[in-house]
Structures are given as C-alpha cells and as structure tokens.
Amino acid sequence: MFVLGIGFAAKRSVSSSIDFFLSGRSLPAWVTGLAFISANLGAIEIMGMSATGAEFGMPTMHYFWIGAIPAMLFLGVVMMPFYYGSKVRSVPEFMRRRFGTGAHLVNAVSFALAQVLIAGVNLFLLASVVNALLGWPLWVSLVIAAAVVLSYTALGGLSAAIYNEVLQFFVIVAALLPLTLIGLNKVGGYEGLKEKVTAGPSGGADLSSWPGQALSGFDSPLLSVIGIVLGLGFVLSFGYWTTNFVEVQRAMASESMSAAQRTPIIGAFPKMFIPFIVVIPGMIAAVTVNELATFKENGGTGGSVDYNDALLLLMRDLLPNGMLGLAIAGLLASFMAGMAANISAFNTVFSYDLWEQYVVKDREDSYYLQVGRVVTVAATVLAIGTAFLAAGYANLMTYLQTLFGFFNAPLFATFILGMFWKRMTPTAGWMGLVSGTAAAVTVWLLSGDVLGVIGIEGQGGAFVAAGAAFAVDIVVSVAVSLMTKPREYGELKGLVWSLTPKESFQDEHPSRLSWYQNPNKLAGLALAMVIVLNFIFA
C-alpha cells in the first residue's frame, strides 16, 4: 500500500510528458544517486549474484569491482555531460542526433526488446517468491506481482519509480545485512567460512577472486584474467553502464549538470559494498544448506534445488519468523525496483523514440503522455510472457550476460567510436550495430551452451560473445566510415568530444561547488577505494 501511495502522490506532479518520463529534470543528486543503484539492485542482482556467489565464490566480486565501478565513474565524468548537456530525452535519441534514423531505429528496437526480456526475469523471480510463500500457481503470482508494479509506475511515471527505488534501497539493505551477519556467525566468522569452502568441492579456489577460471570458463589463468578484464570489465561493463537507458534515465532526471554527473558516482559508493550482503550469503548457503551443498558437489546437476535458490534457502534455515518476514520484504522490494526500472525505461523509449518518431508525429504533449501510460500496461503484459523464458536457467546471470552481449556490447562500441571520432558516418552507425549483434549471436550459437562448436560455455561464453560483438562493430564501423560520407562537423557540436567546447561539460559556476559536489574529485575517491578492495580480496 505504501508504494501505491507514492504512485498517487507522484501523479499530482505529472502534467507533461517530461514530468512522466524524466521527472521534469528536477531531482537532487542524492535521490537520483540512490535510485541509480537501486534500479540495478533488483531480482537479477540479488538472486543472480547470490547464485553466482554460491557457484563460484569470490570471483563474483568482479561483477562489482571490475564490472561496474570503473564504468559508472566513466559515465559520470565523461558521458553524462553529453547526455545531459544535449537535453536528449533518451539514449536512443542521442543516437539519432549523432547517426541519424538508421542507428536510432536499430538501437530503440533492440533496447525495447531487451527491457521486456529483463523485466521478465525480475517478474519471474518476484512471482517465484510469492509462489513459495503463499503456494499460489506461478501464473497467478506473475499477474498479481505485475499488477502492483504497474499501478505505481503508470500513475506517477519516473518520479514514482525513483522515490520507490530510494525507499526500496534501504529496505533491501535492512533485510540482507542481518542475514549476512547471522550467516557468518553460524560458520564461525570469515575464517570459518574459508575453512568450510576449502573443504568443499572447489578446494578453496572459491576464496580467490583472481584468476577466476571457474567464472570465466578458461583453463588458462592468463586467458581468464584477460577475459574478465576485457570481456566483463571493459566490453560488457562499459556497454551496460554507459549506454543502458535504465540507468542513464535516473541521471537525466537530475536538477543540474553537476547533479547528473554525480548520480552514478554517488551510486558507486554503496555499489562497491553490496557484494558483502549478496555474494557472501551465497557462499555461506553453498556450505551450510545441505541440498545446495549436494547440488554443488554433483557439479550443478540433479536435485530439487539450484543456485538461484541460494538466498531463499539460507533465509529459511537461519532467520526466525520476524526477521524472515523482513528479509522477504527486502527481496520483494528489490524485485519491484528492478522491474519498475525496466518498465519506465521501456515506456520512454517506445513513446519518444518509436511512436513519436516513426508512427504518430507532431501531436500535442498530452497525447504522448497518454501513450506512455498505455505502453506501461502493454510492457507489463509482455513481461509476464517473457518471465517464463527465465525458468530454464540454473543461474540467471548467464542468461543476463548473454543478453548484454547481444544488445549492450555493440552499442558501446558504436557510442565510444562515434563520440571520439568525428569521421564516423551515419551509415557506419547502424551497420556496426547490426554486425556486432550478429557476431554475438553467432558466438552464442557456436558455444557449448548451444551447438558446442566452441569449447566454452556459461558466463565465459557471454564474455567471448561480447568481445566479438565489440570487435566486429569497431572493424565494420571504421571500414564503412572510410567508404561513406561523414556529416558536416558543424552539426556535431555537443555530440563529439573534440567539437564540443569545454564549458558545455560543466555547470555555469563550477568553482562554487564544494569538493563533495565536484564529480572528478568524488570519482577519484571512489576509484581509490575500489582499487584497495581489489587488492584486499585478490
């Protein structure tokens, strides 16, 4: 009822499409910063990372310290000035201004498809928890869970989603922190956990984050490190955090350029500590929950449970009824936050970038506001359908990394080349995207998960697919650019780094900002902290 109340309260401030889709660009940095990280702290993050922690252990930390923080800081320092300064309403709209309608249409359609698929993952896990608690059939749980998220998102738009995400962030932390502490106490602290993991099937390999061969799927330690750093840390990570409108939309809702830049940087500070309440419980579950321990000893096959059940099983075994209720509330909050983020990004891109651009042009603003609300309903219904696709994966992070390789890796290649190379042409923009996506799909089909032609599978296969998408996109884009005519350079101000005046990248009076309001100084502090964490747990 409380989250619905926020939806009704936010509805009063929605009088235009910008209010509905971008909160009127009026929110302070601390609100958008917490919403930025909470939007990512959904079912995929909570259940997926705890599952990966149960399966691989400490190498899962790479998804945070290598595969998130550097890209988030790059987004804040380098890319948000382009997004916010150009006053675009979405990431695909930036693509249209830089490359024209070809790349724009490819990006908008692929993004919309990805969001429906990812929203389905969040919805599936949300419904699974409702099913486990109340025993309702899965389809009933899906419909009821979707209805709650739909209600407040359709009412209050992005503002309702953001304020609920801030609330849900604190609920999630309050739910998972006690679980971690109780779990560590049961196994005798971190030293006790190390002893139990060492006695398990991994022989202690789960305790070292590097070289992470089990996670990457490479037998060679050197190739494993290269795969993690380049595949996860560069291509997948930068592709996700810097071009994913689900995250960028929160920063676009900020009240100023500085606030927009600080949004992902503020989010980086809690992000670097999230693994201690997500990954560590997964590791504890793998050595204390009998069914899961047996499943892992059998190589991840057989049994009535899988790695996705790690967190729920640990809650079942460790928490008394009162705390169990709080923990379940935290899970439900995280699932709603993730799904609402996907739906709010989908309705913006569909309404602005597809419907207004290609179907019904030049109508009054109220018309597009109404389209956004209708599309929110349609996206929720589609998410119910795609939720069933997630059921076939024992570890949902494999499913998600595969999707990111398809959609985000080629997009990042196009973005980064077009942002720093003024010679890149509109034709190269869309041809690079299509070629990169085709390369990722081809590698996936040849991997051990499908045809088995390439002897690598799981998340390592996703890393290779992403790397192939990035490389092919770059090669095709460069080749096509050299054979086609570029745009007039005067048209690219605010879209290409070398052609944009420095003052366009900052607020009107940057010298008046305190040190904690300075994006570069905050980013430097966050980077130093994450480097220290990498060394401590190497």
UniProtKB/TrEMBL annotation:
Subcellular location: Membrane
CDD domains from the UniProt entry: SLC5sbd_u2
Similarity comment: family membership: Belongs to the sodium:solute symporter (SSF) (TC 2.A.21) family.
Membrane topology: Multi-pass membrane protein
Main location: membrane
Protein name: Sodium:solute symporter family protein
Organism expressing this protein natively: Nocardioides jiangsuensis
Superkingdom classification of source: Bacteria
Membrane-spanning parts: 27-51, 63-84, 105-130, 136-155, 167-184, 222-243, 264-287, 323-350, 371-393, 399-421, 433-456, 462-483
Alphabetical UniProt keywords: Membrane, Transmembrane, Transmembrane helix
Pfam families: SSF
